């Protein structure tokens, strides 16, 4: 989840909410002042942002008999650059915006769902207004990984809800302070309500993060308890076979042969335990992964690696006692109790 490409850059991206009409009216002025700062790389005014959720509307695409539900974003010409969303076909909105008031951008998912191999020039209608497709952007995640990427449409129709600012990595707190000062000066001392997108993203997956930490804790606890049990069984075995080990040493057995003797006793049970655990772990993880539209494939290598790790841990546990026994004096082992 942390490493997957989202299709946009969430790092150091700030969303400032336009809470009232005064803030909406001053939004373009605020945006112009923000980009004057050397640490504010880009800024945009829009209706929403990925992770924050997008509105849905009914549209009538060219060639369709029934309306299609499409996620809608109302943006300006700087939106793609601010979020670093790739344009794969066509062009972006013109900076002036006026000539493109009846133009739209769509994502690749929407083009694919409509079977548009060449979507540039196609039309999409809403409320008797016809919009022409001028560009296609790369797919990006605007919902959690529980859901697949849906169709998205971008339009210049004004709906100002947020100012998005892309800040360079250096001096982030100082830049936020500058933005707050400009906000209060321009909007008349209104409180600036903002969110840092990467922090919001982390909160969305906090449940999974906590679940991972709990599983990791109990995994180490289970390994520790299993090692204690294996250590105890091996200790009992070596105690019961003390005289046998002493005789073997007198006859020339070395540490490796003694260690192998003890390992053979438990290795088959460790392998049987792993074979029992494989299908159980597979079914549990498969059912859990069904909650996500984007997930890993449970390949055989995960289970092989887990088995090898258990064998390594077992060898280390048993070898400790084998080394201690091998170093003991065989005379003491053979002495009558």
List keywords for this structure.
337 residues; 10 helices; alpha+beta; 6-stranded mixed β-barrel; 4-stranded antiparallel beta sheet; elongated
Q: What is the radius of gyration?
A: 32 Å
Oligomer type: single chain
- Report the uncertain regions: none
The computed structural class is alpha+beta
- How many extended strands? 11
Helix-strand pattern: EHEEEHEEHEEEEHEHHHHHH
* Total domain units: 2
Strand order of the largest sheet: 3-4-9-6-8-7
Shape: elongated
Number of helices: 10
Question: Quick recap of the structure?
Answer:
This protein has helices spanning 21-34, 79-83, 108-113, 172-187, 197-204, 206-240, 242-250, 255-289, 300-327, 330-334; strands spanning 13-17, 40-46, 55-61, 68-74, 87-90, 103-107, 123-126, 129-137, 152-155, 162-167, 194-196. The chain is of the alpha+beta class and 337 residues long.
How would you portray this structure in words?
The chain has 337 residues and is α+β, with helices and mostly antiparallel strands. It has two domains: 13-204, no CATH class; 206-334, no CATH class. Helix content is 48%, strand content 18%. The protein is built from ten helices and eleven strands. The chain has helices at residues 21-34, 79-83, 108-113, 172-187, 197-204, 206-240, 242-250, 255-289, 300-327, 330-334; strands at 13-17, 40-46, 55-61, 68-74, 87-90, 103-107, 123-126, 129-137, 152-155, 162-167, 194-196. The strands form two sheets. It has a six-stranded mixed beta barrel with strand order 3-4-9-6-8-7. It has a four-stranded antiparallel β-sheet with strand order 2-10-1-11. Strand 3 (55-61) and strand 4 form a beta hairpin. The relative contact order is 0.13.
